[in-house]
Amino acid sequence: MRLAKRVIPILVWVSATLAVLWILLFVFALYVYRLSSSLPNLGVNPDAIQTARTSIVYAADNSILAEWHGEQDRTLVPLKDIPINLRDAVIAIEDRRFYEHDGVDLESVGRAFGANASAGDIVQGGSTITQQLVKILFTGRERTATRKIKEALLAYELESKNDKNTVLSTYLNTVYFGRGAYGVESAAQRYFGKSVSALDLSESATLAGVIRSPSRYGSPSSVEAAAERRDTVLQEMRMQGFITAQEEGVASKQPLTFASSTEAAQSAPYFVEYVKQDLVDTLGSEKVYAGGLRVYTSLEPNLQAFAEKAATQLSAPGDPEVSLVSVRSSDGHVLAMVGGRDFKTNQFNLATQGRRQPGSAFKPFVLVTALQQGVRPDQVFETSPYSVPVTDGVWTVQNYENRFAAGTMTLQAAIDFSVNGVFARLIMQLGADKVVQTAKKMGITTPLDANPAIALGGLKYGVSPLEMASAFATIANGGMRVPPSGIVRVTDDRGKPVLTRSLETTRAIPSETAATAALMLHDVIEKGTGDQAKLPVWAAGKTGTTQSYRDAWFVGWAGDISTAVWVGNRAAQVPMTNVHGIAVTGGSFPASIWREYMTGATAAHNVPVAAVQNVPPPSLVACRLCQESGFLANPRCPNVVETYLLSNIVPTETCKLH
Q: What is the pLDDT of residues 98-157, one digit of tens each?
């Protein structure tokens, strides 16, 4: 009796547990059955390969800028035409037990888990070639448990209906290699300019290595990383018995070079590449090249034509290069972009990737900081050369060509004539950290060090023309910051939204400060170093020239168009002391190129002659001040500052000196 009392509860518990397990097993079996019955009928043949759909890029007027092809970049080739070395390389690096498993390799999953846990990073994958093929053809990129179960079931089903060579052949004709290349034939043409059948061992190992991360190993600038990855593939091939140590040694010593890109867009290639990279970073390479996207951009073809024409002012052999980028102040849309002289020979985009010293074009950030801290445009400063102890020694500043060796001048005159001595004193008064904060808020995204030398454009990393155009646009936009972008919206080929750009407008500087800075920078064009940039309409801007004439800038705006022009040598910091018989300063070729482009752009946008973007807020009063006395100017005052001042600091007296 006692035994029964003990045994019966145990039997009941065991029976209940078994019942629950059977129910769970039944539910799982039913789920698997329903899932497998919903799976597509697999039969690997060319028709089973999902063809990539062409993505089309449109300009602002809906004209076509470029087409990013998918299907046209895939050429199916039989397995017999694919070198054995390439087949072996892919198996060695992607699925070493390919000929042993039935579609899913639990041993590889366990090995990958251990290797990744040990490395603290994803260094190995557990998916077989069959699972990767299933992902490409059917399950896509969704990251869910259901997808993993589908993937495993499909992999088993795929291998139950097809032999290994058929699976491998389909995979090699389908997998993405980067550069818009799907399949080994297209990849061989894109990377090496030859048919896949002509690839040698080194090239085969390179392509096999690219599969894991096309963006990391397949870009024109990643040859060094691709070579390291190739050597890893060769090592795996040798360890798995596909090649000998001697073959590995010869192949690993072979120089690796990629064929030049053949994808250059016919229109605005640097802009198209800028948009493409933005989309690849956001949506992924496969979506961009094969997703049938409709990419609507902000580029205005007529303004692009003006930009390219203006850049030809420096097109003679031996001339420095020109970069120009133009943005709309109100919404950050990139309107035109010249990233270099010839995209086919050099894809490095000087407008977005090139970071050079801005020289005095950086002084407006000091100016804006000063205005925010209450410095008036008519405040007087010493102009003489300046020396001051700093953390790493003594900072000594000379004026350009030793002008203004002694004397005083107002802040307005100092920005007009870009007087280094004044701005060196000013940044020491303000604090370099405050100037850094201002520049970042206005749109400078490259890291800045709080070093006093930034007052004169002495930066650690330099800045890009796109950053400068965008930051000056903040002043033009009344102090409101809008990040730049060339993308307006993206849809699929059925019109369904894929990506919509939202305006992230933020208050960067007070509207009063923007209005005063605008009028002061207008004076630079009217009376100062930027007089060669004078337009038929109201405009404002600033010149920039670096030491030894190595970089020259003009950045400014008119109406709603903010534009930066940089002139310099692409490869190195080369002094431009004799270009068409002159030394290149910001007030020479950059200002002239800017003027030519902006003359066309402002006419196209119907910018009124007297259009001041910054209509002064009610708290500001327009004034004409005598530079010598600081009081309201009378008709006899020889040097006058036209500016805006807060109503509570406007002088009440008229100048009595003149």
A: 998 887 877 766 565 555 445 444 444 558 988 888 887 776 555 555 667 777 777 887
Nearest to 526 by CA among 389, 377, 373, 417: 417
Beta strands 386-390 and 393-397, pairing class: antiparallel
DSSP per position, 42-81? P--SGGGS-PPBPEEEE-TTS-EEEEE-SGGG-----GGG
* Helix, strand, coil share (%) of the chain residues, nearest 5: 45, 15, 40
Active-site annotation holder among 55, 94, 485, 511:
94
pTM of this structure:
0.66
**How open is the CA angle 276-278-283, to the nearest 5 degrees?**
90
Contacts of 480 (CB under 8 A, 6+ apart): 474, 505, 506, 507, 508
**Whether the Cβ atoms of residue 101 and residue 91 lie closer than 8 Å to each other:** no
Residue 222 appears among annotated catalytic residues:
no
Among residues 127, 285, 360, 592, the one annotated as catalytic is 360
Number of CB atoms found within 10 A of residue 189's CB? 18
Q: Quote the radius of gyration of the chain (alpha carbons, Å).
A: 32
Residue 341: closest CA among 375, 377, 371, 313 = 313
Q: Taking the CB of residue 60, how many other CB atoms lie within 10 A of it?
A: 18
Known active-site residue 628: no
Q: What is the dihedral of CA 437, 440, 445, 448, to 10 degrees?
A: -30
Ordered domains of the chain (ranges, CATH): 71-252 (1.10.3810.10), 307-604 (3.40.710.10), 620-649 (no CATH)
Retrieve residue 59's tokens: 């300009």
